[in-house]
What does this fold into?
Amino acid sequence: MSWRMTTLNHAIAPGQVEARGLIQSLSKAQSALDAAKIQIWAGLIKLQLGDLAIVSETDGPSDHIELEGDFSRWNGLGFGMEHGNLIVHGDTGARTGGELSGGCIEIHGHCGPWAGVSARGGRMKIHENTGDWLGANWPGEPKGMTGGEIIVKGQAGQHAGSRMRRGVIAIGGNAGAGLALSMIAGSILVAGSTEGAVGSGMKRGTILLKASGKLDQNLSSGFKSSGEFRPLTLNMQLRYLQAIGWHKSDELLNLNQCERFSGDLLALGLGEVLVLH
Amino acid sequence: MNEASPKPVLRIGHVEIDDTFAEAFPMTATRLIITAISEKWALTAATVLTGYATSVIACDAEAGIERILSPDQTPDGRPGICVLLFAFNREALEKAVVKRVGQCIMTCPTTACYNGLADRSKPIRVGGRLRRFGDGFQISKVIGNQRFWRIPVMDGEFVCEDEFGTTKAVGGGNILILGNSQWKTLEAAEMGVVAASKFPGVITPFPGGVVRSGSKVGSKYKGQIASTNHAYAPTLKGIVKTALPPMAHCCYEIVIDGLDLETVTASTKAALYAAAGADGVVAVSAGNYGGKLGPYHIHLKDLLDPEGSS
It folds into this structure.
């Protein structure tokens, strides 16, 4: 069964809407009436979904849910999703796609902080900007994202890929400070510029950056140059990302020179930062 | 193989086609894509990898170069070579592939090695077994659903896919080309090999695709599992029951391994017609063990076009 949901006026919701589990409940609903009765917390008040949005059944493929409107105060949309498609035409709140393990989430808008936090699989595409802690770990948890693919066409906030263990994050715009903080493994690609402390505490994994004047200052001091080297897998990864819709692959594929920095030597030191010229 | 000459009742042009069959048997196969900085180096690696891989009688695998790939057909966008390897089962195949990739491809400048089979339901682990050569400096990279190992070596990195798909396959398709001279028969065999190799999914694992030492099962010597196929040896014509027609003074065999019976059959047919159309060929036959070795029987009469038989 496939669904379309359109938000009603914000004034109705007295606070942040906790949408964790909503997509799973929608998938199980037998009718639009059922769906409208799904209970949902808005601030400290429990409401029915029908109070906040208009839900209608559509003719699309099964497990396909489309949301329209401003969901920027709806937190946890697509949280723990295991299969199916969630497409949002609008902005979403915090924790969108958190603990995602399968299926695909596509957001045609901006996305709040903690998008894809501790994701385990699946794919997430954000067409505009996203907040801090993209694909990162929950506070206190040893591992961030452990699988899946996150593509951001716009910019990402601070600490993207913090403690990331596996998977790939591709950011089309700029990334904030603390990129790949204590990264354990996986791949992060940034087509724009970065702020300070890139790869600080990184053990393994790959960060791909485009050369910029500030790179020397931004790269953590525990990185040492290993000379010019372009891994074969880099072009393969860029072509793969191109195939799944990352618009910056072409631009990066055309940059021929690649310098490799190894680090962070203050941690395990087996990570790499590849800088394309 | 045939120890008695069956009555020829079929022909392609003037060439007699024995009413017999090639006896093929089940094998397990995998396909490797070897890439390098240039076709020359990819071909070098592929040639070394497929060396000493003619027959599972004494080799760990049967292997051959399937085709050359252009850069747009390979995973890393470099020139590449497709290689097929065959063994009796998946365990034996894994052992052979790991050893051969480790010693023949990883050692060869600029090369990388990727899986070439779409079906990965029954994989063998290759890169995952070679990764420890990296001594802890190896890097795993997952792209889509595939894991690749980047092993640091002296010219950069050796990239090898973690797992390679395997498939049930067919080994031992063959024809025997009987000619009136060594040179003419060899030319005919070469033409047969070219025709057989045009099909994707087949290899002719012997040197140049041609076998001169066709074998029969067993020997007069204890422990010798295979020995010369004396019925086709021209120098023994006078002292054994020969399978060679009076005008034939040389015999070459083309052995064909393929990913499925249909392809092996089509390839055998192409080889048969190419060889039969060559100068100096007296007859074409096929090797079998009376149906005891393998379940796949490729009857030569079934390969003849209606207008080709008489």
Q: What stands out?
A: The mean pLDDT of chain A is 93. Chain A has one domain: 59-276. The two ends of chain A are 48 Å apart (CA to CA).
